[in-house]
Every structure is written in structure tokens, then in C-alpha cells.
Design a protein that fits this description.
It is built from five helices and five strands; from the N terminus they run βαβααβαββα. The chain is an alpha/beta fold. The protein has a five-stranded parallel β-sheet with strand order 2-1-3-4-5. The chain starts with a strand and ends with a helix.
């Protein structure tokens, strides 16, 4: 049975790439939010967004952060990472910049968002959470690497969180 996961990503920058991963069928992901639904949530302000995220995380065992060029700069992605970790969910990152977008272009390598989360001890989340850079010489090979490994990466993330 596939794990239930929450996918965190920068919608405007990586929605197309993220949909490729979400539609692989290797995991049971959160229901996509349409542009219109997301605009309605955003109009409700920060509290409405926080509530939406909280509701999306219910029943999920892991958050999969799909990392593109601008992911680490997104306030709500960082919020999702912190909330997931604090709720004792597994957290794992997968770089998706080498998957092609709707125009057939690959993206650029982005910063590690886990570097931006620091515990009160000064330790960074990046020292615990894995960020995978899938192998492959082209988008098709990268897709295949993700599809082949994503379930194992999620299981590993849950195991890491259980040990922490």
C-alpha cells in the first residue's frame, strides 16, 4: 500500500514538474489545489493559508519537498517543512530542476531549503533530512530514477524521523 504524503513545492515555478512526480502513482499524495482554489485560500490571508496547510497534512506520514530553482525562497514551503517536522512526519527532498517544464525546458539548480531551518541548538535540518539529486542524463532518466526510488526515500525519511 502506498504511503500517504504531502507534496511541498513552489506552485508558480514548479507546478508542471511537481505534477509529473505526483502523478507517478508510487505514492498517495495530497489532492492538487486548482489555481482558483489557491487564489481563494490566499485571499483569506496568512491564517487561511496556515489552516489549509494544516488540513492537508492530516493523515500524512511524510512531506516530500520537490526542490526547484526558487523553492528555498518560498515562505510557505519553509512553513510546511517546519510544521511537518514538528508534527513528527518524515521529511525528504527531491531535486526536480532536471525534469522538463511545459515548454520543454529544464530548470536551474536551487538552494537546499533544509539549510534554512535551524534548531535552537544551532543544528541545521539539512544535517538530518536527505535531499536527493536524481541521476540521469535527461528528463526521462531523471523521471525514471525518481519513480524507481521515491517510495524507498519516503520510507527512509520516516525512519529518520522516528529515530530523531
Amino acid at each position: 500500500m502506498a504511503r500517504k504524503v504531502f507534496f511541498s513545492f513552489y506552485y508558480a515555478g514548479d507546478g508542471w514538474r511537481a505534477s509529473q512526480v505526483r502523478n507517478m502513482g508510487a505514492l498517495e499524495g495530497n489532492a492538487p489545489c486548482s489555481d482558483n482554489d489557491w487564489e481563494t485560500v490566499k485571499k483569506g490571508g496568512d491564517k487561511a493559508i496556515e489552516n489549509w496547510i494544516a488540513n492537508q497534512l492530516v493523515g500524512r506520514s511524510c512531506t516530500v519537498v520537490l526542490v526547484g530553482e526558487e523553492t528555498a525562497n518560498r515562505k510557505w514551503v519553509i512553513h510546511e517543512i517546519v510544521k511537518s517536522w514538528n508534527e513528527k512526519k518524515g521529511v525528504v527532498g527531491i531535486r526536480i530542476h532536471n525534469l522538463l517544464d511545459s515548454t520543454g525546458k529544464a530548470g536551474s539548480f536551487g538552494s537546499n531549503p533544509f539549510e534554512l531551518v535551524t534548531f535552537s541548538s544551532g543544528k541545521k535540518l539539512s544535517s538530518i533530512v536527505r535531499l536527493y539529486n536524481p541521476s540521469g542524463l535527461n528528463s526521462t532518466e531523471v523521471y525514471k530514477t525518481i519513480k524507481t526510488n521515491i517510495a524507498d526515500w519516503v520510507e527512509e525519511a520516516i525512519g529518520i524521523r522516528d529515530e530523531s
